[in-house]
């Protein structure tokens, strides 16, 4: 069943990660098919759609503040506007959120994404029995595939493909499995069809995402650990000059064949995004990461030795409950020795409903922030040394905007930039020579 929304003006605010962005693109694509008119102006929309994030405390606060701002704007400027809230925040808090914010006209869970047009039509239909809070599936099953239309929100030269949804990991600090449900992979056929469509539109960088891209296919059968390599084989066989980038690879699921694929491919960027979270065994055990120090060290060393000219990026959590000064110093020493090319660190944030929330050994906020700051100061020194080694080299870059580009070692909105001449056209590859750097960014001609 399809709804007719001809002439209905819709604005969207999309919050959170790239995985949430794909859901936003699907909703907008569905609304366009139904005849809706999209506008970037929240003031002039008949319906304001807010796709929220509910992952960690700062993201939750941003989502709540955005909803409250929308309610205030409607009360003062657009009194007839309907406000619709969807995404992870409502999926996580359900009835509690709808009770807290009665001014919102409609709340929708993640499984309602492909039916967004029907829900909005019912909301506008005065004779409809539209429920303010349709039944919320606490274990969502929806995953965007090639059958779902999408309205691209990224620049025209790169886009995301969500190859799977949900997560099976028991990490004690993370709420995502409870929000997004169990891991579920798309078929290779579906992913390749979407990628081919993107290449035909002129996309220069395809970014594969999921909660854990290295788990891809293992939900279909325990012996399908090579399915990700099969997918990459199919993608790199497509004609064209483009990059393939993988984000969010869990260290527990890397395989020898995947390392070989990164090493031998000319289209897969030599960008290894592998969040280890920590290196000290007591903390890894409390986090339930399914990895240990010796394994992580061996894996990272193997990747660095076999995938030539690769940049390895990781994400860390400091101040996890029970993290001793010895644990932190072990992490600091490892970073100093291994020298990650890219690194992000977060002070631990206790999230409701996680096992870690109830753990003893809480670390004071001041200590958590001090430890995070110390690691980033170290990382800044490491990157400075690495950037010195790039001066004088010629590199292939993808120009994102006039004057700004990225190497294959840098994901959009996450990593470093290359400052290039404004004459280079956006959305195209270029060959540049590095002549200097400023903190994390490179300068090229």
UniProtKB/TrEMBL annotation:
[4Fe-4S] cluster 2 binds at residues 167, 171, 174. Its cofactor is [4Fe-4S] cluster. It comes from the Bacteria. Residues 8-125 form the MTTase N-terminal domain. Its EC number is 2.8.4.4. GO terms for biological process: tRNA modification. The keyword Transcription regulation does not apply. Its main location: cytoplasm. Keywords: 4Fe-4S, Cytoplasm, Iron, Iron-sulfur, Metal-binding, Ribonucleoprotein, Ribosomal protein, S-adenosyl-L-methionine, Transferase. [4Fe-4S] cluster 1 binds at residues 17, 53, 88. It is found in: Cytoplasm. PROSITE patterns: MTTASE_N, MTTASE_RADICAL, RADICAL_SAM. One of its GO terms (cellular component) is ribosome. Residues 153-385 form the Radical SAM core domain. GO terms for molecular function: 4 iron, 4 sulfur cluster binding; aspartic acid methylthiotransferase activity; metal ion binding; protein methylthiotransferase activity. It catalyses: L-aspartate(89)-[ribosomal protein uS12]-hydrogen + (sulfur carrier)-SH + AH2 + 2 S-adenosyl-L-methionine = 3-methylsulfanyl-L-aspartate(89)-[ribosomal protein uS12]-hydrogen + (sulfur carrier)-H + 5'-deoxyadenosine + L-methionine + A + S-adenosyl-L-homocysteine + 2 H(+). Binds 2 [4Fe-4S] clusters. One cluster is coordinated with 3 cysteines and an exchangeable S-adenosyl-L-methionine. Belongs to the methylthiotransferase family. RimO subfamily. Catalyzes the methylthiolation of an aspartic acid residue of ribosomal protein uS12. This is Ribosomal protein uS12 methylthiotransferase RimO. The gene is rimO.
């Amino acid at each position: 069943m399809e709804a007719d929304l001809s002439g209905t003006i819709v604005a969207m605010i999309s919050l959170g990660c790239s995985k949430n962005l794909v859901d936003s693109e699907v909703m907008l694509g569905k609304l366009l098919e139904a005849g809706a008119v999209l506008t970037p102006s929240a003031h002039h929309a008949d319906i304001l759609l807010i796709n929220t994030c509910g992952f960690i405390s700062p993201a939750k606060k941003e989502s709540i503040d955005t909803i409250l701002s929308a309610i205030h704007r409607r009360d003062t400027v657009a009194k007839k506007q309907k406000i619709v809230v969807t995404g992870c925040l409502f999926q996580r808090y359900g009835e509690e959120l709808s009770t807290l914010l009665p001014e919102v006209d409609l709340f929708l869970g993640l499984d309602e994404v492909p039916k967004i047009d029907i829900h909005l039509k019912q909301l506008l239909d005065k004779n409809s029995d539209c429920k303010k809070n349709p039944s919320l599936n606490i274990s969502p099953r929806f995953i965007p595939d090639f059958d779902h239309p999408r309205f691209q929100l990224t620049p025209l030269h790169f886009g995301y493909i969500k190859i799977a949804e949900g997560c099976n990991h028991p990490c004690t600090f993370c709420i995502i499995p409870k929000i997004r449900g169990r891991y579920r992979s798309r078929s290779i056929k579906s992913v390749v069809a979407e990628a081919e469509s993107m290449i035909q539109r002129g996309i220069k960088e395809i970014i594969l995402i999921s909660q854990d891209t290295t788990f891809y296919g293992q939900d279909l059968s325990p012996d399908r650990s090579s399915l990700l390599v099969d997918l990459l084989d199919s993608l790199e066989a497509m004609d064209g000059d483009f990059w393939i980038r993988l984000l969010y690879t869990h260290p527990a699921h890397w395989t020898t064949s995947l390392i070989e694929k990164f090493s031998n491919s000319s289209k897969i960027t030599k960008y290894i995004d592998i969040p280890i979270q920590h290196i000290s065994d007591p903390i890894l055990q409390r986090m339930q990461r399914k990895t240990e120090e010796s394994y992580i060290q061996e894996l990272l060393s193997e990747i660095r030795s076999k995938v030539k000219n690769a940049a390895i990026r990781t994400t860390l959590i400091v101040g996890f409950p029970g993290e001793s000064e010895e644990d932190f110093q072990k992490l600091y020493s490892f970073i100093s020795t291994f020298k990650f090319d890219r690194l992000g660190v977060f002070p631990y944030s206790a999230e409701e409903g996680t096992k870690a929330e109830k753990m003893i050994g809480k670390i004071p906020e001041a200590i958590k922030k001090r430890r995070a700051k110390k690691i980033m100061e170290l990382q800044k020194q490491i990157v400075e040394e690495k950037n010195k080694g790039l001066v004088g080299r010629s590199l292939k870059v993808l120009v994102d905007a006039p004057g700004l580009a990225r190497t294959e070692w840098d994901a959009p909105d996450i990593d470093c930039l290359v400052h290039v001449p404004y004459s280079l056209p956006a959305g195209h590859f270029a060959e540049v020579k590095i002549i200097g750097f400023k903190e994390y960014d490179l300068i090229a001609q």
